[in-house]
Amino acid sequence: MPRFIQYDAASDTIWVTDRLSRTIDPSDIQDLVKDIQGGRNGACPLDGALDALEDGSLWKGIGDAGQLALESIYCVIARCAA
């Protein structure tokens, strides 16, 4: 069963789930970061997200707000994997 990283703008919360809200169309992790920065609900597949974060390319040139979003996503994934 696929799992997702989901962001709720109203509560400013990120979590891992296996069920998405019907109003959210999952995209990739870069789009999730843009959603977080833009104050929009968003989601991306958990599968591959950690690899994308650890490869380093996402962190370059993303700015302070993007860095904070990526760090938050990374912490949620790390807690989920522990």
What is this structure's SSE topology?
Elements (H helix, E strand, L loop, with lengths): L3 E5 L4 E5 L11 H10 L3 E4 L3 H6 L8 H19 L1
Antiparallel strand pairs: 1-2, 1-3
Q: Give the structural class.
A: alpha+beta
Shape: globular
| Spatial ordering of strands, largest sheet | 2-1-3
**Helix amount, in percent?**
40-55%
Report the sheet-strand fraction: 15-25%
**Which series of helices and strands comes N to C?**
EEHEHH
Q: Please, what is the average pLDDT?
A: 88
Name the poorly predicted regions: none
- Please give the number of β-strands: 3
At a glance:
With 82 residues, this protein is an alpha+beta fold.
